[in-house]
């Protein structure tokens, strides 16, 4: 959104009020006897608080109701075993956001090819970048309309995300080819038909360590290094217990801006690539990787610490950097939208088996990048990630696919059973 400094201050105040409203609500809810914790009582408490505490009144009434709604939903998620119990929101760790729960208040109008105008409660009319077609005016009806919005702040400023309801026709079954995909070490997404998806940004630096800033250009990398050195220098003057100077804070903010840019480039590439894959292929097969457990297992336990921890967790880190979990989530809903399906196969052995002759021979994986079959009479060699992707597709064709990955699996737990017992 294009905002004036005054508008930024107003929305900041709203976001802080929303966060504080959450904290007050949580305090109130957990202090109250269980039989008096009702939605109606919480609603009355919020109304009273908005009347009596003037800095809470900067939050529009609808946004305050949205806080209550999300808070109650957080408890429901906890009771159904999907998440932990809601907690207080800390000032510096929480993403700043404000809800605009009613679509009709927004009065969206397109004023330019790239710009639109929107009404925000208690802020006024503001301009936003028009990046996607929105169902407004003649394009909107009961089934296709904007039902609300959410303002979110990151290091690059305030953004608006619209919540949209649309009616889509059931897609025709996809008739494209099948493909296996491997979350590669040398290629971000290796495909079994060799149409690998690469963003041309190596995950590793020449010395073998993971490059966490690969989405930045050389100039930006140099700038980041300079900023980090400056931050370290300024921090060295800070005495224990002293507040960060505003100069140090400004440097931190500049670093955060660069990181936010890199993050946005990564997710843009991810969206474009997964859309392309869902359009092209009817059946997409992926490995079922348990990334948090891979990182945990590399670390090992206190009694039995892992071997080659740095090496293994370095490998895992480059996997989690490519955000494999999010890629799978995107592929799940995008294949469904295009009439295709996503399947998961068990991971063990896919990187060690030769996809040409089917043998698993010791030492065939010569390096992270190269696979050479040691079976006499085969001797196939090629990219190791490509080989794994072909194995993934092979496992699917042999009927080893796990339960189709349609939608999110929810582990239901009977009420009153503690997680450990249920497990
Ligand atoms: Zn072979």
TrEMBL record:
Q: Where is the Cas12f1-like TNB domain?
A: 324-392
- Which InterPro entries does the UniProt entry name for this protein? Cas12f1-like_TNB (IPR010095)
> One Pfam family from the UniProt entry?
Cas12f1-like_TNB
Q: Offer an example of a GO molecular function term for this protein.
A: DNA binding
The answer to whether the entry has keyword DNA-binding is: yes
In this chain, the stretch annotated as Disordered covers: 195-216
Per UniProt, the keywords (alphabetical) are: DNA-binding
In the UniProt record, does the keyword GTP-binding occur?
A: no
UniProt protein name: Transposase
